[in-house]
């Protein structure tokens, strides 16, 4: 029996398999020709349960691209190909492999979503084939689910980054489309639902902001992946250097400010009870430090390489405990 951790984000799908091997790809897929022309052949074209062939991740481009839009991360029909892709990349299904799938979903709709995901996936055998003729099969014998943020908390406890003490820990997960805030009472390690909420802001706002600037400069709409890369450094598009830190800085500042403002409004005097402030998620790599003013001196630093993986690492730990 193997345990695979899966975090199907709005932006990226994060996967942890045996030996904490990590995989990540953009959360999107598109139908594809199943014919193998014998050129290149490097792009994985797969099908699941003998359905239509599709490509996924950065290879999925063009007008037919699908991505799961709903909060229901595992039960959305548009998530199923991504789940199959996540299993496929682990390369562990050469025999019919039994899997414990460890994943998560938003706190607000947790019970409902867990039930839907269980009905859909528990006991199910998923058959994945590539156009190159390879086949992998996985049977999901068990589904372990935790709310988003709780996954991160389990990771933090496991690594000794937070421990039992007075006060509240606030995990701020800055994702692509949303920022999810989870408050935990560190005396009993229970989530405080009234102080947990979602802010409608994320790295995606910075990406669309950069796209607008580039469109003004070049007259072209650049692909989202290009705009995303243009946050950290300049990129060449249409013979022009565009984007980069000078363009992205004010947009990143605006994102951080929006998170700070919404935190203040939602938490009010409870801000004073924060004894651990923990920015996680890919967005925290970009703006995490700016959140210090919410609880000065109480920032807990997660290793940069784990930032985007905190939830999925925690889901997998939960399944192995
Ligand atoms: P979600 O869970 O919503 O899919 P993630 O937390 O995975 O979002 O990532 C949010 C965004 O953070 C990514 O879309 C990416 O643009 C950005 N990001 C991730 N890793 C890095 C990094 N190493 N440097 C800069 N930005 C990053
Ligand atoms: Mg996320």
TrEMBL record:
SUPFAM superfamilies: Actin-like ATPase domain
Coiled-coil stretches noted in the UniProt entry, renumbered to this chain: none
Domain Actin homologue MreB-like C-terminal: 171-293
Top-level taxon of origin: Archaea
Domain Actin-like protein N-terminal, first and last residues per copy: 5-151
Any Pfam family matching the protein: MreB-like_C
Name under which the protein is recorded: Archaeal actin-like protein
Species this protein is from: Acidiplasma aeolicum
């Amino acid at each position: 029996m193997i345990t695979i951790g899966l975090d199907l984000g709005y932006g990226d799908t994060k996967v942890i398999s045996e030996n904490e091997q990590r995989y990540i790809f953009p959360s999107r897929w598109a139908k594809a020709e199943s014919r193998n022309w014998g050129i290149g052949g490097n792009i994985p074209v797969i099908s699941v349960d003998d359905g239509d062939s599709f490509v996924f991740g950065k290879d999925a481009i063009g007008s037919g691209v699908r991505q799961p839009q709903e909060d229901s991360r595992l039960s959305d029909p548009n998530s199923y190909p991504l789940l199959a892709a996540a299993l496929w990349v682990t390369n562990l299904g050469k025999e019919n492999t039994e899997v414990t799938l460890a994943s998560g979903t938003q706190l607000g709709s947790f019970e409902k979503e867990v039930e839907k995901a269980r009905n859909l996936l528990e006991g199910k055998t998923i058959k994945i084939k590539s156009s190159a003729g390879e086949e992998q099969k996985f049977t999901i014998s068990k589904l372990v689910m935790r709310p988003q943020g709780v996954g991160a908390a389990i990771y933090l406890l496991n690594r000794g980054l937070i421990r039992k003490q007075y006060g509240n820990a606030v995990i701020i997960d800055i994702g692509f489309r949303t920022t999810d805030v989870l408050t935990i009472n560190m005396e009993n390690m229970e989530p405080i639902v009234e102080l947990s909420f979602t802010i409608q802001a994320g790295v995606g706002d910075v990406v669309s902001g950069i796209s607008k600037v580039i469109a003004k400069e070049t007259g072209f709409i650049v692909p989202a992946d290009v705009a995303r890369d243009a946050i950290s450094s300049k990129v060449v598009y249409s013979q022009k250097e565009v984007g980069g830190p000078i363009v992205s800085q004010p947009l990143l500042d605006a994102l951080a400010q929006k998170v700070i403002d919404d935190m203040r409004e939602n938490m009010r005097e409870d801000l004073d009870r924060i004894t651990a402030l923990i920015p996680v998620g890919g967005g925290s790599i970009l703006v995490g430090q700016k959140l210090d003013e919410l609880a000065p001196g109480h920032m807990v630093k997660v290793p940069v390489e784990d930032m985007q993986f905190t939830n999925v690492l925690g889901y997998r730990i939960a399944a192995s405990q």
